[in-house]
Amino acid sequence: MHEVLLFGQVPWGRHEQVLKILAGLCAMQPQRVIERHAVYKPSQAPTQQRGVQVGGSQTIQQQQRPNRDRPVQSTELFYVQAIQSLEESDLGDKIPNGSETNGTTNVMKKQSWAMQFQDVPQPGKRAVILRQTTKSKIVDGDAHEFMVTQGNTFITEFMTEGYQFVTGNIVLNMYRPLQFHPTESVLSSPREALPPLDSLQPLDESGAYLLEASILLGSELKPEIETQGTNELRDLQARMKGVVTLKVPERLSLDTRVK
């Protein structure tokens, strides 16, 4: 799939105000979104590892997409993510004495995982970001085992918490990345149990949120569809003027290639 995007920043002190404005703009209440992002590094280019399943991967099902959705004939390596959708009840709690408990004994087994690839945004002077992306559900089995049997190595993980809105073809995600507390040993897989959400530290120490506006354009990129998507985002950009500045970030700040 291809998508077009614009990004903005919402200071912590204004996030409630912006939520109310977005609720009015989209004529809907904000939908709470909590996700765990496990980052993996492939050991070889996708064209070399495609079609090979060994060990536990034979018992793991993944929703398949047409080959044209996937990067082809590429010798570069790209980080990929396994993303898990969560409820706050999946995480731990703080108890009266000030200590914490972890959440579900093994939240890894909760079947709400998807594998996501995001390409480097296309070069050129554009009014919006244009990039290729794929997101496929992992519908059965152990998500980490699936990623490993596809030739990937676990690198790190983080959480995001925020809110989602939809208006027309545009999906608006207002979120902030959260870091886990450092561990004494290097983890080789995602955590089985998760700490309380409010014990995690925002990656941006100011607590600011990112506002991401995106439109999926489809697998085959047609000029007229790209133009329509671009115009819709530019219209939103104008409507949000004075509220949040939506803009095109530096292209290489979204670079997902393994260096």
Automatic annotation (TrEMBL):
Annotated segments matching region Disordered: 42-71
Keyword field: Activator, Nucleus, Transcription, Transcription regulation
Annotated Gene3D superfamilies: Hypothetical Protein Pfu-838710-001
GO MF terms held by the record: transcription coregulator activity
Localization annotation: Nucleus
Domain of life according to the entry: Eukaryota
Chain intervals with Low complexity compositional bias: 51-64
Pfam families in UniProt: Med18
One Gene Ontology cellular component annotation held by this UniProt entry: mediator complex
Keyword Transcription annotated: yes
GO BP annotations listed: regulation of transcription by RNA polymerase II; termination of RNA polymerase II transcription
Homology family: Belongs to the Mediator complex subunit 18 family.
Function, as annotated: Component of the Mediator complex, a coactivator involved in the regulated transcription of nearly all RNA polymerase II-dependent genes. Mediator functions as a bridge to convey information from gene-specific regulatory proteins to the basal RNA polymerase II transcription machinery. Mediator is recruited to promoters by direct interactions with regulatory proteins and serves as a scaffold for the assembly of a functional preinitiation complex with RNA polymerase II and the general transcription factors.
Subunit structure: Component of the Mediator complex.
Name the record gives this protein: Mediator of RNA polymerase II transcription subunit 18
Taxonomic lineage of the native organism: Eukaryota, Fungi, Dikarya, Ascomycota, Pezizomycotina
Chain's gene name: MED18
